[in-house]
Amino acid sequence: MPRRLTDEFCRTVVPPTDKHSVIHYDAPGPRGNNYTAGFGLRVTEAGARSFILNYRTKEGTGRRYTIGSYGTWTVSAAREEAKKLRREVDSSGDPVKQAREERHAPTVKDLCEKFRTEHLPTRRFSVQRDYRSLTKVIEDEIGNRKVAGISLDDMEKLHRKLTIENGTPYRANRVVGVASKMFSLAIVKWKMRPESNPCRGLERNPESKRERYLSKEELQRLLDALAAYDNQKYANVFRLLLLTGARAGEVISATWSQFRLEKSGGTWTKPASHTKVKKDHSIPLSAPARKLLADMYAEREEGEARVFPRIPEVTKLHPHWSRILGAAKIANLRIHDLRHSYASTLASGGVPLLTIGKLLGHAQIATTQRYAHLIDDALTKATETAGAILSGRKKAPVVPLRRGWQ
């Protein structure tokens, strides 16, 4: 028999002893108002009390929706919630089905895993490696949240934490970039959230192109520190970077089959899967680079395919790089700056930008343009030398002729 529910009744009602649970349905108020059919209090044999709403969907399926426990909810608050739910039902809604879908809705962790297994295999090897590291940051921070529930405010908080608390403003930008791509796929391709990318409108940290090159004095100190370092495997990584201008990811993923080390010359052919331009990239190797590789090849384990088999990712290089820089007394030099130093050495020697770009594997000449001023400096020096010789202010260098010319 329905009765008007009150907080006192909910608090003092006696639990059933002859059945698992019983429902006390609400009755209309004194004037027959403030009442929702199907709203009641469920009391279990153990004494648990919770507010429920029974209803039928438009298809005629019976449902029971649990609003919440008495104590957390008052009678008046639960009654108002029942009214709201009834309006949803009358509008062809199904609160139980919606709650079930929300419980089983994909989390950000699910999205990260889908991104790694379905999207990353289509990208080149170095991108896969970097993106896996960045998705791990996202997963650790907001992995338990529902994909559909992430907002711009959530992403701004994550970006701010990485920028200020962790002190990594550039990495914060990279994380947001990967998150934006993931949410775009979640919206357009995987249908995991409504059409609203939570990264859209987020203001990223300003970035500037670094132009940090080794000076002659720093180079000598670095070479000395590499020679004295107690782990020559890692020292050889940095030597090869310095001698080839390659990216760190290309070096640690290199296999012996990519190299040709003939005495008269040698080449390194990087496969398309490891290069930024997504095609095979072959470069000549200098004599010091060939010697370094030949010595390493002679000491390799029998049958080992990789040049650096026990270095799985670039992040493993950083602690060793820090110790080497400390020994060399060099500050503010990234591993990637070895690539800049290689290019700057070529540019200072007057090597054309097009040639430098080909050696570095740049897809666009604009990327190589940052070294143009160094070429200009070399050309200016050469012009001044020529002018001094031709004006008689400086004697031309004597070049001895070969015996056959005499």
Would you summarize the structure shown here?
The chain is of the alpha+beta class.
Can you walk through the features of this model?
By secondary structure, the protein is of the alpha+beta class. It has 3 domains: 7-99, Integrase, DNA-binding domain (Double Stranded RNA Binding Domain, 2-Layer Sandwich), CATH 3.30.160.390; 108-188, DNA polymerase, domain 1; 216-339, Orthogonal Bundle (hpI Integrase, Chain A), CATH 1.10.443. The chain has 16 helices and 7 strands. It has helices at 7-12, 75-90, 95-103, 108-119, 125-142, 152-165, 169-188, 216-228, 232-244, 248-252, 287-299, 318-328, 337-348, 353-360, 365-368, 372-390, and strands at 21-25, 39-44, 49-56, 62-69, 259-260, 267-270, 281-284. Strands 1-2-3-4 form a 4-stranded antiparallel beta sheet, with helices on one face. The longest helix has 20 residues, at 169-188. The radius of gyration is 35 Å and the shape is elongated. Residues 401-406 have low confidence and may be disordered.
